Structures are given as structure tokens and as C-alpha cells.
Amino acid sequence: MYFNGYQDIGVFEICYDAGRAKGLSALLVRNGAMECVVVKDHALDIAHASFGGVGVAFVSRNGLSLQKDAFLKSFEGGLLYTCGLDSISNCVPGVYTHGTLHGTPAEQVSYEIEDEKIYIRGRIDMTGLFCDALTLHREICVLKDGITVRDRIENLRGVPADYCLLYHCNFGAPFLEKGGEVKIDYLTREGMTALARENEALAGEISEPIPAAEEHVFYHTVASGRAEYVNPRLGLGVKVTYDAQKLPLLLEWKSMAENDYALGLEPATTRFDRFEKTPIGARESHCYELNIRFEKQ
After folding, report:
1. Are β-strands 278-280 and 9-15 bridged in parallel, bridged antiparallel, or unpaired?
2. What is the mean pLDDT of residues 228-256?
3. Contact between residue 102 and residue 45 where contact means Cβ atoms under 8 Å apart
């Protein structure tokens, strides 16, 4: 536990001791209205999150787990689930769905409180014998109104490599509910499946939970790196911002299924169906920044 003179700013080291999550190491972080769980064993991704006492993240019925079952039986969602660096979705045969980064424990994890901001830092090594050697250096800054994630992908080898990256930002009930609105400043929008293409006009609308509803995924090319979701009843909204030059595609995952009720706003380097990796030169680094900000409407 680490406080810095403020009762509403702190970092608590926690370890789950029951169920599938037993042994999982994480940090419970609180900064004013913003509270979240940063999971050290899951690449410093962000699981549970609340703002002003309202649960904002989608966490699936699977919950957190140290086990690595089939993807649909282990995907926990969370406010941030980072996909890559070897695959996103099921783009690469033989690679775990959405890639192996999320399942890689972070190393050299540290945290500090400075000027009422909480900084969490660590590195995630994705290496192997006679293959690519990439490291993701991650810094998470937890503010009173949200979170900034700064990532630096470093190619450790003296030869070029490539990677892919998708930031799976997931919102759920009670923040997600009927009447909510998705706002994306898009240039083009395309449903991933035939059903999604039939419902493109409804991409911005959130319905009530529907038993056994099929998920919809939409590809957006964007004019700016900004996506929003607003809940008028709660008077609460969230903005996801990023550099659209580096992350030129925004995926929207809309699952209105009862018990799997979720909205994903997902900046990415590539589509699933026209999958392309990003080249990175020898000893080169690429930097990314993702901002998640909550605000009262």
C-alpha cells in the first residue's frame, strides 16, 4: 500500500486467493473518483474500473484467470485488453486469439505518486529463441478523471521485425445501458459480417440487453483519433483519444447480448480481414498513447 498524504490517492498491491484468479498479482489504484485494477500478470492491462462509484468497464462472466483456456472461456474483457503483438483477433493461425501479449506478465513493475497523478511502469517482453524479440515498455498514468497509457515498442534485435496492435477498450453496465449513444467522427463505416452490414445505421445506438443477440463489429476509418460514449441518464460520458496516424482504424464491438452486454472502442493498426503487420527497423522503437477520460455531462 502506498499513500502520498491524500486519503483518496493510493496504490494497493493485491493478490487473488480464490477461484480461477488464484495467484494473480495486481494493483488496486485509486485517484479521487477514478478507481481501477491494473493486472501485473496480464501485461499491465486494466480489468475492473469505476468512476464516481459507477462501474464503467465490461468484465465478462469468465472473470479474471491465471488459466489459459480456449479464448471464449478465458476472455475477461476489462477496461483495457491489449491485443498483439503477434496477432489480433484470430488473424494468425496457431496464435492465441487476440495475440499473446495480454497473457504475458509484466516485469520490473514500479509505481509512484507525483502531483496527484499515479504512475505505473513496467515492461512486457515478447521474445523467443531465433525469432523476433520485441519489448513493450508501458507507462500508465491514473488521473482523477481517467487514464493515459503510453507504450513504447522496442525491437531488441539487429534485424527488422513486424508487429500488430489493438487497444480493446471495453465498457459495460451500469455505464452501458439502453439510450446510450456512441459518437465516432468517421469517414467510412463497414460492418464486418453480413448482419453487421445490415445494421450499420444502428451502430451508434445502444439497446436494452437481448437474449442470445449476435455481436456486431464495425470497421471505421476516422477523421480524428476520438471516439465517445455518453449515458444521458447518468449524465456521464467517456472519450477515447489517440493518434489516428499511428492507429488508422477504429473498431466498434457492440454486443447487446444479455449477460454479454458490452461496447468495445478499439483503435488498431490493421483490420482483421485485410490483416497487415507494421514493420519496425532494427533497434528501432515505436511509441503510442491512448487516453481514456470520463466526464460529467
Report:
1. unpaired
2. 98
3. yes
Give every CB contact of residue 279 below 8 A, 6+ residues apart in sequence.
160, 161, 162
Helical H runs in 137-200? 194-198
Residues 6 or more apart from 119 whose CB is under 8 A from it? 111, 112, 113, 139, 140, 141
Integer Cα distance of 236 and 243 in angstroms: 24
Please provide the average confidence, as pLDDT, over all residues in the chain: 95
Which residue type is seen at 6? Y
Ranges of each domain in the chain:
2-296
Instruction: Please give the class, per CATH, of domain 2-296.
Output: mainly beta
Supply the pTM of this predicted model.
Answer: 0.96
Which residues, in sequence order, are CB contacts of 44 under 8 Å at separation 6+? 38, 106, 109, 120, 122, 124, 138, 140
Confidence check: pLDDT of 7 > 80: no
